[in-house]
Input
Amino acid sequence: MDLPPYLHERVTCSIAAAAQYGIPANIMLAVAEKEGGKAGQWVRNANGTHDVGPLQFNTAYLSQLAGYGITAVDVAAAGCYPYQLAAWRLRQHIMQDGGDLWTRCANFHSRTPRFNAKYREDLVRKAGKWAQWLVAGYPTQSVVTRPGPASNVLPDTVPVQPDIPKPQLQPKKALARFPYVPRALTERGQP
Output
């Protein structure tokens, strides 16, 4: 499907990051659209913090990432790294937070109920639009079935499975020669 050139990186990186971290691609695309930042962008907030880069990571959150060697320069960068980091963070919200899937995903923006609800409403709308775009542009078929006599097809969104370990960021210092911090998500019992 044709996309304007300015969306190529956003769409390509969002889909790749969603696949890497096992989150729905339409949700990752919706978050990327909703955040709508650009590489190198800094937006000042009323509370004195800034939202940085394509996924608009708040500078207050960056203090948590410092332990991994991740800086504002990293999240403001062009390329797929900010999208990978956002997908990792979304997966954490999906796996660890309470509430329904949409509330968990809206926690990417804020856990404050009134801000979460507003973000959530727009996120649901954008995710629906991206789901239609994905179905129209990428032929897919459901191959996951439940065992048993009826063999029902599972819904598009897989329920949270608490036995899946959280993805772990590796400290950047150990991989200084690489431009991206690789991340691995392994299933129990998988090599």
Remarks:
- The domain at 5-184 is CATH 1.10.530 (Lysozyme).
- The two ends are 36 Å apart (CA to CA).
